[in-house]
Amino acid sequence: MSPIYLLCLLAASACMVLVDRRWRLFFWRDARRAAWVLVIGVALLLVADVVGIALGVFSRAPTWAMTGILLGPELPLEEPLFLAFLTYLTMNLVAIFERLPRRERAR
């Protein structure tokens, strides 16, 4: 077992924070609203994961790159961090897209 995947998630998240800070996209525009969106987004995705696990749709494949720490049956420690990264990335992309001029969005 290894923390490589966890460290990669943390590094990618740190890069997202730098992008957000540089262009004031999500947290640097409205931190309170951003925190709510992030928490609600991660919570909904975790509920979907738990339902998928309960139905047998999702399962954890053992891999050398993950820590092996489980938060629940088939739910690795890295999963909530991955979901937070995806939510943060999505919100930054939405903010970037909203800033594009209308004619650029139409292309």
TrEMBL record:
Subcellular location: Membrane
Keyword Membrane (UniProt): yes
UniProt cross-references to InterPro entries, sorted A to Z: Lycopene_cyclase_dom (IPR017825)
Keywords, comma-separated and alphabetical: Carotenoid biosynthesis, Isomerase, Membrane, Transmembrane, Transmembrane helix
Pathway named in the protein's UniProt entry: Carotenoid biosynthesis
Superkingdom of origin organism: Bacteria
The protein, known as: Lycopene cyclase domain-containing protein
Ranges that cross the membrane: 6-23, 35-61, 81-100
Keyword hit for Isomerase: yes
Membrane topology, record value: Multi-pass membrane protein
